[in-house]
Design brief:
Blueprint (H helix, E strand, L loop, with lengths): L10 H18 L3 E8 L2 E9 L12 E2 L4 H15 L8 H4 L10 H5 L25 H5 L16 H15 L3 H13 L16 E3 L6 E3 L9 H4 L2 E2 L1 H13 L7 H7 L8 H6 L2 E2 L4 E5 L2 E10 L2 E8 L4 E7 L7 H15 L15 H4 L3 E5 L2 E7 L5 E5 L7 E5 L5 E3 L8 E6 L5 E6 L2 E4 L23
Antiparallel strand pairs: 1-2, 1-11, 3-6, 4-5, 7-8, 8-9, 9-10, 10-11, 12-13, 12-19, 13-14, 14-15, 15-16, 16-17, 17-18, 18-19
Helix pairs in contact: 1-12, 2-6, 2-7
Length: about 450
């Protein structure tokens, strides 16, 4: 299967991508598998493999995407936050009372740290009609909390049903209508829908010990829809992946999307070891030495993955119509690796600043925290970066606050204030970073080093 986008990648890269999905479809015994790669905000490759001779799905064929739906729901919640309709620290009870789990905050529900059960009570909700669970009480049950609120990451599908209900309450409209109006239409995701629209794949269960199949039921999930209802295509999800990196002011800013991609839930030891963390409606996984952000999804009859290496500016989507078989994240991560290694990102040309603030330029150079050497640099984006010269230690970028101070953007110094301190004659004395004093020389006796500096100065062993 080829695509008009494919000429944008080298022939060897295209063949390697096709080979990877061919192996996945064959070894995973998937009735069909379709994939797409996005780079630089554009779809640059699509491919498919199928068990139907002479026909294969393309980037416009719908598959069910399961829990990737949660990322769409999270975008709606972040929109409400950015408009001031809610705060992520708000307890659910403030906006959606009488659920019995109102002590969990909006952020905790987004990050699966609200203590809720993983699944609904009663029959398997993904394989039975949503009409069996007409209200929130039916998806929460008599024991909705299985852990203390905020203490641990515990994936919860009912938690996203609550977030969908929150969106409906604050917007005064059904979740699917709000999603279509505020996200799908502005982004041009015309083939992403709540219910299947032809052409779409059928969902299949493949027998684990025989090469035979069984059709899976395609149920409407009802109030659980915000956790996993959506159908989409490889092409639409590739465009959604580009949005999750670049942002779109009509939908959500790049800054809010960076927040969505930031780990937000306590992790367990096994997750730390595997390099997994959950953010606000997105997952971070580490594979092939890369940090990959996105989401996986599954429903009976379907497997899905959307994953992105922001550093490489490469994302991949994998969709299959089987209950189990191929590992969609592993395949998608391999597609990212193939492109990133075969055709590494070409950096933008270096360009100097158009103008520079002399006060900012005065800060650059070498500084010492005690005896540890650091370098402070001013970059063309107007930020300053502080990093250890030894290669080990705390580092961060800082943005100007507009009053001569700088605010940390990441790591240990995120949110901390970097303040240049001047002497009475106006010359630069030292830097104050969250009470740490950085001086031009190690323990500079001319600076107010906490605890003072021995007046006899540096010495050898007598």
């Amino acid at each position: 299967m080829t695509s008009p986008h494919q000429e944008e990648l080298l022939p060897g890269t295209r063949r390697a991508l096709l080979h990877r999905i061919a192996v996945a479809q064959s070894e995973g015994r998937a009735p069909s598998l379709v994939a797409a790669v996005v780079r630089g905000g554009k779809v640059v490759w699509t491919g498919a493999r199928t068990s139907v001779e002479g026909h294969a799905p393309d980037e416009h064929v719908q598959y069910r995407i399961g829990s990737i739906t949660k990322t769409f729901t999270a975008v709606l919640v972040l929109r409400l936050r950015d408009e001031g309709a809610l705060d992520l620290a708000d307890p659910l009870e403030k906006h959606l009372p009488d659920t019995g789990v109102g002590g969990a905050t909006v952020a905790e529900l987004l990050a699966h740290s609200g203590g809720l059960a993983a699944e609904t009570p009663g029959p398997w909700w993904e394989r039975t009609p949503g009409s069996l669970r007409p209200g929130l009480a039916d998806v929460l049950g008599e024991r909705p909390l299985v852990h203390p609120v905020g203490r641990r990451f515990h994936y919860s599908n009912p938690g996203y049903a609550l977030l969908g209900a929150l969106v409906e309450k604050l917007r005064g409209a059904p979740w699917e209508e709000v999603l279509r109006r505020e996200v799908l239409a502005p982004l041009g995701l015309r083939r992403t829908t709540v219910r299947a629209e032809a052409p779409h794949a059928g969902g299949w269960a493949v027998h684990p010990w025989a090469d035979v199949m069984l059709p899976e039921p395609l149920e409407d999930l009802g109030v659980m829809a915000p956790a996993g209802q959506l159908w989409s295509t490889a092409g639409d999800l590739a465009r959604f992946a580009a949005f999750l990196v670049e942002g779109d002011e009509r939908v959500l800013s790049a800054e809010s999307l960076r927040e969505m991609r930031t780990p937000a839930a306590p992790v367990e030891a096994a997750d730390v070891a595997s390099g997994y963390a959950y953010c606000l409606g997105m997952e971070i996984r580490h594979q092939h030495g890369r940090s990959l952000v996105g989401h996986t999804g599954s429903l009976p009859g379907f497997l899905a993955c959307l994953t992105i290496s922001v550093a490489d500016d490469v994302g991949a989507v994998v969709l299959a119509n089987c209950t189990s078989g191929p590992a969609p994240f592993t395949v998608a991560a391999d597609l990212v690796r193939i492109v990133a290694e075969a055709e590494p990102r070409v950096p933008a040309p270096w360009r100097p600043l158009r103008e520079v603030d002399p006060a900012a330029l005065e800060l650059v150079g070498q500084w010492y925290w005690g005896t540890s050497a650091f370098a402070l640099r001013l970059s063309a984006d107007g930020l300053v970066s502080l990093e250890p010269l030894s290669g080990n230690g705390r580092r961060s970028r800082f943005r100007p606050a507009g009053d001569g101070t700088w605010v940390g953007l990441e790591g240990y110094y995120a949110g901390e204030l970097l303040k240049p301190v001047r002497r009475s004659d106006g010359t630069l004395s030292h830097l104050d970073l969250g009470s740490f004093v950085f001086t031009r020389q190690p323990y500079d006796e001319g600076a107010p080093v906490p605890g003072g500096v021995d007046p006899e100065g540096w010495r050898g062993i007598g």
